[in-house]
Structure formats: structure tokens, C-alpha cells
């Protein structure tokens, strides 16, 4: 379950924030990570980071620290101090840090134009030296990206003034810290959701290229000692060039990728909206604030099957098995493991998820490079998870509701990424003493099915679709051939007619549905 | 979202592009055809006149069997819209019908700007003000429109 803290049920909740530190929190930062909190806001933010791991029930009240931060951010001066505290106090090594910045900004009251201006002034972006204090710059970039996303439209244009644009592009310098490069890239991507910004960014990038390759192109081959950090930078550079900032004469990734030997992929047609899938269909990443999910292209009904996932980031992902009935409720924060048709492993919070209920497991928290093994034994009704070859005891509960049609599937919180291996390359930790098969030996994909198009191209193709005028007004898939009785309203097909209990036009109860005879031609 | 984009959504998008609604702009996101960037002009003779209000509209997986999710992104002083931009409007909740469309929803929201309904409030403080001192409430709404919803 993704942390969803939008459950404020009434607008008149009153919080008392008279004391600076609630008594229960006084010792909460005794572990002393990186920075000593120096304000009420910082203390609350560190408390939120701790609490968010324990927030495993979406119906549960959000932690008090979050509610207090919201309350503080209701006033302009409070909003500014929450922003400044987020930037200075979220530690770089907390796997949930970036996601918490995104969650908090997303849920705070909307800032005014004047407030945004004040924030920019306080940050002094025009005078910052970007290659010092990488943690702070990383947080600034995350915060800018979240604000851009939250305020898409005129306010986002206002925020992306010359200083901010200059700053973000300077952050992309290949010699900079990879975490700063990564989040500057993501921030630019979020600014580009507003078309005027996008045009400005492209213009700026073009003015820089001078035949030496634009800054983002250089990042496509970015190499760094931190293998998994550089992988994220390359992934995002690749994505933004394919989807947002096209460069002349650069072929799209789907045109270059070699998918020979890959017979099972993540399904680009069976995915929630914001998940990014690589052109080889085996790597996925989420940079949205929602909880994004995907299933693979292949499913099984019997036998014993295994796949592996290499973790690129160490935050919240729920990786496991699901059937077609599992729902992807990205905005509500539900994904794989959050219904009775799926089960998942969460290596960040160290949980196994089933029916949106979490159970602790004893594996250590996962780290970039760790390999999650997922064994599904349909015949013996068991699922076995392993981390770097160390197996957990089998889980049986998935089979009480789901019996067939199992897909590999996963959900991602903000800024998470991992690589799937369905068997197209050798497994690192094949389960011992067990005869299993792999998806890739049995899957079949046509060339078209293997082609993962940039969404822009896909969308442009959709606009060309021709839809007949006599179609059902609800689905537009089938012919409108049904009359609802007694009201006699028409315009619906029999399939949609069956799903209705009251007439969509007059709201009258439906007693009968009759097929219309086709009109004579 | 199984099997790509439903034809119903494609059809509505095509129509919104071909025959836009006066005073309303709704453009699908380039990356996500279920997400629309919406601009609604404040209706004439309302306290929101002269303002342009940015909204987001999202079509959930069950659409059109369930209602679109709509939210104001621009701050607005209105008894039926809270500070997070959430809208209290019956057709977005229990009065939803699959015969309604994106365009009818946006027209209803525009109508809600013309006729605030403090008896069915979402933002209690604002509704209270609207009932106790309507002139003052309208003045505040005008002021907010100028502060938050005017370009430049």
C-alpha cells in the first residue's frame, strides 16, 4: 500500500500546535542522523520520516506530525518555513526521503504567486554553487519538481524563471553529484508538463548544444562509481529525450533497442498512467506522487514458476504476483498486495502484503543491487520470496481467492525503480531443490507487442481512431442496440445496458432491456 | 488500465478538441490521456469574473461508470470548494450518471461559480461568511480572484 495521507475527512479539524515539540517526539531524533534539527518544522519532518514507515493502513489517521505540518503550512510564513525545513533536513540516505518531500508538498495548501517568489528569493538560486552541499541541492530539486507538478499551469510558468531554469540546467552538468543530476532532470520533466515551460526548456537546451551534444544527451551514457545511481540518471535521461525534449537526429529508444530473446515484458497496455517502462520492457520507474502498478505480458495457471527483480532504489515497491482481477488504484494508494488477488514483497518496510494487510518478515531492508526472487508454485499452492537467495517460509494465503491466471506484477512509490528478469538472462539465485520454469521460455510476443512507443506517439495515434456514429454512448465500442424499459431511452449497447440499474438519462429504474431491430436501410 | 484507452474517452477527447465549450479549455496531458488540464474562465457577473481557474480532471478506470475526479488547482474563495481545491457537487458524487460527460461536468462547475450554494458547504468558514455577510464574502471572493486567478 502506498502511503496516502489525503484522508482529511472534514475541513474543520482543529489542531493544537502551541507546544513546540510534542512530548512523544522529544527523543525521536536521538539516533542523530546527519543533521541536528534546528526548528519545529525540521523535528516534525524527521518524525514524519519515521512514522511514514509505520503508516500501513490508508484508513488510519495520518501521523500527527503530518497534520501539524499541514497546519503550519496553512499560513504563508509557515509554508515557507516548511519548505526551507524540508530542503535542509531530509537526509540523503533515507530511502523514503524523496517520497516524503513529495507527499508533504502534495498535501500542503496551495501557495500563492507571491509566496513562490519569496521561496525563490530565500533559496538564492542565482548565487548558489551547485557542486557543494549535494544533499541540499538534491532536496531543492525534488521540491522544485513537486511544486511544478502541483501547480501545473500559469504558476508553474511563473516559478520557472530564468534563475530557476539556469539553476536546474547547471545541475545537469555531468561532473555534478548524480543525485543532484537525477532530481534536476526529474524537476525539468515536471516543469515540462506545462507546455510553455516545455518550449522554454527545449529552447534553452538547444542554445547550449553548439554541436557538443546537449546536456541531457550526455547523461544517456552517464557513468559513475555508484552503479545504481548512474542507472537512474541514464533511465531518466533516456525517458525525457524520448518523451519530452526531442533532439534532432536522435532515434527513439524503441527504434534502437534489441529485444531478440525477450519473450515476456512488462505490459505497456496493462499499467497505471505514470509508470515509465524502458524500451526493452524489463525495467520500470515511477516519478509520480501516485502509487503506480504494472503486470507482465504472460500469465500461468499451473506449474512452478520463478522470476527475479534487481532493486535499483531502496524505497517502497511491492513486488509479487497478481491476477487480472487485481486493481491498480494509483491515486488511492492501492496496488499489488492490496487486494485478495495479489501478494507482494516490500523490502523497504520489510513487509509481505496481502489484502492490503501487512505482515512483517525477517529479511533485512533491501539495498540497491539486491535481488528479489519470486517463486510461484501453483500446484502446491505456495509463494516463496527470497532476498539474495535467502528464502522466507512459503505463503499460502494468495490461493484462497485466486486460483489461476497469475502474472508477475509490481507497484512503485515515487522515485523507485527496478529491473525484471523473466528468464531472458540467467537467474542469480535459482531456487534450490525445486523444479521450476521461467516465463521467457513460454511467452510469445509479436514485433508490435514488443514495441513500447513513447506516450506522445501513442496518443497522437489515438486521435486518428474512427468511431461510428451509431455507437453506444457509454462505451463507444459496440452498436447502440438496446432500449430501456419502461422509460424507452436508447443509445446503449446490450453489454452496458446490463451494467445499468437506473437509466442514465432520466434516472428511472430499469425494469427491462429490449434489443432494438436494426433500422431498414 | 487494461488494454489501452477506451473508445468513450477517445470520442470525448476528439469532440472537446473539435467543438470546445465557450469559456472552458480542456486539454489531455501528453503523457496521460486520462488526465486533462482544464482552464475555466470565471463567469460574467460573478465574483470570479476576470479570473482564469486551473483545474485538473482525471478519468478513473471505471469511467464512465464512475464520475471523473476534478479538483481546482487555483485557490478560490467559494463555499463549495475547499482549500485543497476539492469540489462539493452532487453530479461528481451520488448523482453521477454515465450519460454525463467531461463537458457537462465542466459546465456544471462553471455554473457552480455563478451560483455558490452556502447551504451545502464544503468549506465551513467560507459558507458561514457567505450566509452571515454575503457582501463581505463576495468582496473577499473578488479579492482572491484578483490575487490568485489573474494572469500576469
Folded structure, characterized:
The complex is a heterodimer of chains A (about 525) and B (about 150). Chain A has about 525 residues and is of the alpha+beta class. Chain A has 4 domains: about 1-110, no CATH class; about 115-250; about 265-455, SPRY domain (Jelly Rolls, Sandwich), CATH 2.60.120.920; about 465-515, Zinc/RING finger domain, C3HC4 (zinc finger) (Herpes Virus-1), CATH 3.30.40. Helices cover about 30% and strands about 15% of the residues of chain A. Chain A contains 16 helices and 17 strands. In chain A, strands 1-4-13-6-7-8-9 form a 7-stranded antiparallel sheet, with no helix packed on it. In chain A, strand 2 and strand 3 form a beta hairpin. In chain A, helix 8 crosses helix 9 (about 180-190). The longest helix of chain A has 17 residues, at about 135-150. Residues about 5-35 of chain A have low confidence and may be disordered. By secondary structure, chain B is α+β, with helices and mostly antiparallel strands. Chain B has one domain (about 5-150): Ubiquitin Conjugating Enzyme (Roll). Chain B is built from 4 helices and 4 strands; from the N terminus they run αββββααα. Chain B has helices at about 5-20, 100-115, 125-130, 135-150; strands at about 25-30, 35-40, 50-60, 70. Chain B has a 4-stranded antiparallel sheet. The radius of gyration of chain B is 16 Å and the shape is globular. The model of chain B has no long low-confidence stretch (mean pLDDT about 90). The chains are: A alpha+beta (about 525), B alpha+beta (about 150). Chain B: One of its GO terms (molecular function) is transferase activity. Chain B: Pfam families: UQ_con. Chain B: This is DgyrCDS13208.
Amino acid at each position: 500500500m502506498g502511503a496516502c495521507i489525503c484522508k482529511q475527512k472534514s475541513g474543520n479539524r482543529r489542531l493544537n500546535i502551541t507546544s513546540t515539540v510534542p512530548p512523544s517526539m522529544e527523543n525521536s531524533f536521538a539516533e542523530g542522523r546527519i543533521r541536528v534539527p534546528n526548528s519545529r518544522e525540521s523535528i516534525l519532518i524527521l518524525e514524519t520520516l519515521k512514522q511514514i514507515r509505520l503508516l500501513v493502513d490508508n484508513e488510519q489517521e495520518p501521523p500527527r506530525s503530518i497534520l501539524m505540518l499541514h497546519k503550519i503550512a496553512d499560513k504563508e510564513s509557515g509554508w515557507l518555513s516548511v519548505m526551507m525545513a524540508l530542503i535542509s533536513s531530509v537526509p540523503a540516505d533515507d530511502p523514503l526521503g524523496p517520497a516524503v518531500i513529495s507527499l508533504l508538498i502534495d498535501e500542503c495548501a496551495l501557495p500563492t504567486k507571491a509566496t513562490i517568489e519569496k521561496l525563490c528569493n530565500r533559496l538564492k538560486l542565482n548565487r548558489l554553487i551547485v557542486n557543494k552541499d549535494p544533499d541540499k541541492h538534491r532536496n531543492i530539486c525534488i521540491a522544485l519538481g513537486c511544486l511544478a507538478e502541483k501547480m501545473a499551469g500559469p504558476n508553474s510558468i511563473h516559478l520557472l524563471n530564468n534563475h530557476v531554469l539556469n539553476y536546474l540546467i547547471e545541475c545537469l552538468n555531468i561532473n555534478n553529484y548524480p543525485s543532484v543530476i537525477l532530481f534536476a532532470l526529474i524537476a525539468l520533466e515536471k516543469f515540462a508538463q506545462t507546455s510553455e515551460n516545455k518550449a522554454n526548456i527545449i529552447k534553452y537546451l538547444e542554445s547550449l548544444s553548439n554541436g557538443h551534444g546537449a546536456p541531457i544527451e550526455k547523461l544517456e551514457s552517464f557513468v559513475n562509481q555508484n552503479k545504481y545511481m548512474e542507472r537512474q540518471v541514464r533511465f531518466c535521461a533516456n525517458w525525457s529525450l524520448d518523451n519530452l525534449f526531442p533532439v534532432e537526429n536522435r532515434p527513439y529508444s524503441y527504434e534502437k533497442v534489441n529485444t531478440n530473446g525477450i519473450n515476456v515484458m512488462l505490459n505497456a497496455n496493462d499499467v497505471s498512467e505514470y509508470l515509465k517502462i524502458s524500451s526493452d520492457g524489463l525495467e520500470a520507474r515511477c516519478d509520480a506522487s501516485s502509487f503506480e502498478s504494472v503486470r507482465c505480458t504472460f500469465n500461468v495457471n499451473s506449474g512452478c514458476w520463478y522470476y527475479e527483480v534487481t532493486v535499483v532504489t531502496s524505497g517502497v515497491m511491492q513486488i509479487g504476483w497478481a491476477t487480472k482481477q487485481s486493481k491498480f488504484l494509483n491515486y488511492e494508494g492501492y496496488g499489488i498486495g492490496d487486494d485478495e488477488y495479489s501478494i507482494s514483497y516490500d523490502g523497504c518496510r520489510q513487509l509481505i502484503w496481502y489484502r492490503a494487510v501487512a505482515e512483517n518478515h525477517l529479511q533485512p531492508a533491501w539495498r540497491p543491487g539486491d535481488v528479489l526472487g519470486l517463486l510461484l508454485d501453483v500446484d502446491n499452492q505456495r509463494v516463496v520470496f527470497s532476498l539474495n537467495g535467502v528464502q522466507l517460509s512459503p505463503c499460502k494465503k494468495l490461493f484462497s481467492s485466486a486460483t489461476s491466471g497469475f502474472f508477475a506484477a509490481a507497484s512503485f512509490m515515487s522515485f523507485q525503480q527496478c529491473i525484471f528478469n523473466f528468464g531472458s538472462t540467467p537467474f542469480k539465485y535459482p531456487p534450490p531443490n525445486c523444479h521450476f520454469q521461467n516465463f521467457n521460455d513460454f511467452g510469445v510476443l509479436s514485433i508490435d507487442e514488443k514495441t513500447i512507443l513513447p506516450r506522445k506517439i501513442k496518443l497522437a495515434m489515438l486521435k486518428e481512431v474512427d468511431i461510428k456514429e451509431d455507437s453506444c454512448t457509454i462505451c463507444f465500442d459496440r452498436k447502440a442496440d438496446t432500449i430501456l424499459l419502461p422509460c424507452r431511452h436508447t443509445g446503449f449497447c446490450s453489454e452496458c445496458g446490463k451494467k445499468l440499474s437506473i437509466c442514465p438519462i432520466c434516472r428511472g429504474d430499469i425494469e427491462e432491456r429490449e434489443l432494438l431491430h436494426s433500422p431498414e436501410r | 488500465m487494461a488494454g489501452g484507452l477506451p473508445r468513450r474517452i477517445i470520442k470525448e477527447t476528439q469532440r472537446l478538441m473539435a467543438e470546445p465549450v465557450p469559456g472552458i479549455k480542456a486539454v489531455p496531458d501528453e503523457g496521460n490521456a486520462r488526465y486533462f488540464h482544464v482552464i475555466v474562465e470565471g463567469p460574467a457577473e460573478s465574483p470570479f469574473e476576470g479570473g482564469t481557474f486551473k483545474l485538473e480532471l482525471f478519468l478513473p478506470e471505471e469511467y464512465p461508470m464512475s464520475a471523473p475526479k476534478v479538483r481546482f488547482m487555483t485557490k478560490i474563495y467559494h463555499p463549495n470548494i475547499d482549500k485543497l481545491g476539492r469540489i462539493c457537487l452532487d453530479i461528481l458524487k451520488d448523482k453521477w450518471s454515465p450519460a454525463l460527460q467531461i463537458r457537462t461536468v465542466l459546465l456544471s462547475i462553471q455554473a457552480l461559480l455563478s451560483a455558490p450554494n452556502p447551504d451545502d458547504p464544503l468549506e465551513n468558514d467560507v459558507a458561514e461568511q457567505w450566509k452571515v455577510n454575503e457582501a463581505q464574502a463576495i468582496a473577499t471572493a473578488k479579492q482572491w480572484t484578483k490575487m490568485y486567478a489573474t494572469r500576469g
